[in-house]
Design goal:
The protein is 21% helix and 28% strand. It has 5 helices and 10 strands.
């Protein structure tokens, strides 16, 4: 059975998150992909994803894999799936045939997230569900300096949800950059994997530093506490984006199937 790697983008606002939770709970991104691929292929399929994004979280670089009985050309898998997603805020950007043992989740070596904050006095309109609005101007230099406290290998208990199911709270945070751009403030975070609510918890707490309510030392103390109660604010889901998932160079796409 050919295995396909799918690169996906979606607006998370209309969904309960990536993971299927049953029809009675509402729509999920994974569920809509299963439905769409099943409709075009006529098969009962399973779609595995690289990251289980929460309700409201967006993506322009989510990765998934699916096995199909027929050896379809890549373009057909992409376009036929999108045909059955035309009424959804989900699109397959690319489909590539991969080796049978490629796994979107377990083969990944790094995940990249973007968190957007717009600090201006007027409320947001067009960006209302795309960024976190702060009516107070934030000190980006202080935020950038404080973010360095979190880079490296730490116990991130303070910054994970009490419902997180990960066996260990220890993670290695490779990058936490904070920069002001023409459209606001961008927080970019990279790691092999993240805990449930980790990015939103860290950015939300860092925002307190930008507001002058916390210092870098306060952030370090919160991290060292290893206690969820020490976390500051948790940022809203609608400002978070999964932008890219990295894989080792060994995972190269297989030759495309010719169209007949």
């Amino acid at each position: 059975m050919p295995r396909y790697k799918l690169t996906i983008e979606y607006d998370g606002g209309a969904y309960l998150g990536w993971q299927m939770q049953g029809a009675s709970f509402g729509k999920s991104v994974q569920g809509e992909l299963v439905r769409a691929i099943g409709e075009f292929s006529g098969e009962a399929v399973t779609v595995g994803g690289a990251g289980r994004t929460d309700a409201g979280v967006h993506a322009n670089g989510q990765v998934a894999h699916v096995d199909l009985a027929r050896d379809w050309p890549n373009r057909v898998v992409r376009d036929a799936t999108n045909r059955y997603l035309k009424d959804e805020a989900v699109a397959v950007v690319a489909a590539e045939k991969m080796p049978d043992d490629f796994d979107a989740r377990f083969s990944a070596v790094r995940r990249h997230y973007l968190y957007r904050i717009i600090d201006r006095r007027p409320p947001l309109t067009l960006e209302r569900q795309r960024a976190w609005w702060s009516p107070k101007a934030l000190d980006v230099d202080r935020m950038r300096e404080a973010a360095r406290v979190l880079i490296g290998r730490h116990d991130f208990t303070t910054f994970r949800s009490t419902e997180c199911q990960a066996k260990s709270p220890v993670r290695n945070l490779d990058r936490f950059d904070v920069a002001r751009t023409d459209t606001g403030i961008e927080c970019r975070l990279d790691a092999r994997s993240f805990l449930h609510n980790q990015v939103r918890s860290m950015v939300g707490t860092l925002k307190l530093v930008g507001e002058g309510l916390w210092t870098a030392d306060d952030l370090a103390e919160a991290l060292a506490a290893r206690d969820r109660k020490a976390c500051g604010t948790v940022g809203p889901a609608h400002a978070l984006y999964l932008t890219q998932v990295d894989y080792p160079a060994e995972w190269q796409p297989l030759p495309d199937t010719p169209e007949t």
